[in-house]
Amino acid sequence: MVLPLYRLNAQQLGLLAAATALVLPQVRFHLLSVLDLESSPGPVINLMVSGIYPAMTWVPFVIAGMAIARLDLSRQASHWRLGLAGGALAVLGYGGSWLALRLLPGVPAALQESAQWWSDQGSLDYSSPLIAAPHSETTFAILGNTGCAMIVLAVCLLAMDALPHLRKLVWPIIAVGSMSLTAYVLHIAAIELIHKVEINLHLEEKIDQSREGIDQERQYIKEIRQEGLDLKGIDQEGKDQEGKDLDEKGLDGTHPRNLSMLFGFIVGVSTFAVVWLRVFRRGPMEALDHMFA
């Protein structure tokens, strides 16, 4: 979607990233209010508006990344400017959300008292454009997330400026950074695969426990297929008896996004990146992008 923009310079891309971050989330919220999403929305609407990663609110991140890539990052002054700009965006995004939730009229008290100006923990309300929680797809979230990413990038560059002899030590990190799109796609695919395996294991376990009669077993499988997941205490809206979203919990009631999974992803992706770059110049997704560009 952004390939036609690859000839633009850093300033043009930066302005476009800011414009899309300000406008597209508001357009998306309006579309969500007028579209009938209970019926099948279709692949285009799902891709652009209602999916897990709606393009309308993720395009600004991509354009911002393109703008940063156009900068002269060989100079230390550029690293400092990148970090300071990132800090300003982070304050504008998260600080702006915090202020908006508390100063603007009509904001529910529960939302004012929540941590959704920066966190996705607890009871989630993604219907407000004033929050900055992860995956809330708001302008505040885009600004805050982009700012934090710029700070991390600037800190890493400044660290390499100050400690160049550590370059070999952090080569796995550099390798992953050189194929960040591939790494992102791989970790999303891995999460989906793990989720499906857990569902299948849970289904097999429940079937084994339901050997009392073939009708009972068939009815259970039917319910599994209709509801997606048949967990204890899960209602039709995908929430348990405590009101927590299904995605917040694992199949056995535990949080799936734990440290062991995180470290597994880090080790797996780093190993893949190091081995791949010994043979190829670019990551697989990066090579595909380069071919189209």
Question: Could you list some keywords that capture this structure?
Answer:
globular; mainly alpha; 293 residues
Could you walk me through the main structural features you see in this protein, from its secondary elements to its overall organization?
It is a single chain. With 293 residues, the chain is mainly alpha-helical. The N and C termini lie close together (11 Å).
Please estimate the helix content: 55-70%
Let me know the largest β-sheet.
Answer: none
Mean pLDDT: 83
Shape: globular
Give the N-to-C terminal Cα separation.
11 Å
Report low-confidence residues grouped into runs of 5 or more: 230-256
Helix- and strand-based class?
A: mainly alpha
Radius of gyration from the alpha-carbon trace, in angstroms: 22 Å
Query: Strand-and-helix sequence, N→C?
Result: HHHHHHHHHHH
Strand content: under 5%
Number of helices: 11
Number of DSSP strand runs = 0
Q: What's this entry about, in short?
A:
The chain is mostly helical.
Topology:
Layout: H1 10-34, H2 43-50, H3 55-69, H4 76-103, H5 109-113, H6 139-162, H7 171-178, H8 180-208, H9 214-227, H10 259-277, H11 284-292
Helix pairs in contact: 1-3, 4-6, 7-10
